[in-house]
């Protein structure tokens, strides 16, 4: 009787169990492949969205920096009755700002930031900075309207810098986006005594 039970149990197969065929290969089903492809798509989509979010954050940070600088300039204009760098010489002295002569592009109070370029300062491949453009950042710095400190510029200072030179850090701030420099310009003269 025991033989009968043993033989019967071994001869009965589960209906869902397949018989092993030597020629049949076992592979992935379409459902399994679909699930893997969906997961890969979600991962790639998450990476691309993440890159976009990072770039949007960097751009937003730059916009915030520009807005803060605009607010600083407006606060300076209200408090000191002039543009930073362009404050008249008498007012600059009264408020304890860097002295200036009041000549064209040297704190003349005309509402235009002007660069004073000394003779021979325009070398090929360089950028010049001087006069009211240089004093612009110094005035904002000395009045604590910006966090950066720029105490090097004078009205007559003018120098040529090559792109990426370390000296720029002494005179103008870096932007939040790509760490380039924020160069200020509103028009003006190329040489002392020239008309705007």
Task: Write structural notes for this entry.
The chain is mainly alpha-helical. The protein has helices at residues 2-11, 30-80, 89-94, 131-142, and strands at 126-130, 158-162. A two-stranded antiparallel sheet has the order 1-2. The protein starts with a helix and ends in a 34-residue tail after the last strand.
Short description:
The protein is mainly α and 196 residues long. Helix content is 40%, strand content 5%. The protein contains four helices and two strands; from the N terminus they run αααβαβ.
SSE topology sketch:
Layout: H1 2-11, H2 30-80, H3 89-94, E1 126-130, H4 131-142, E2 158-162
Antiparallel strand pairs: 1-2
Task: Enumerate how many helices there are, as a single number.
Answer: 4
Distance between the termini: 118 Å
- Uncertain runs with pLDDT below 50, 5 residues or more? 188-196
Strand order of the largest sheet: 1-2
Strand content: 5-15%
Shape summary:
rod-shaped
Please, what is the average pLDDT? 75
Number of strands: 2
- Radius of gyration, in Å, reads 36 Å
* Fraction in helix: 40-55%
SSE order, as H and E?
HHHEHE
Main beta-sheet strand count, sense and barrel state: 2 strands, antiparallel
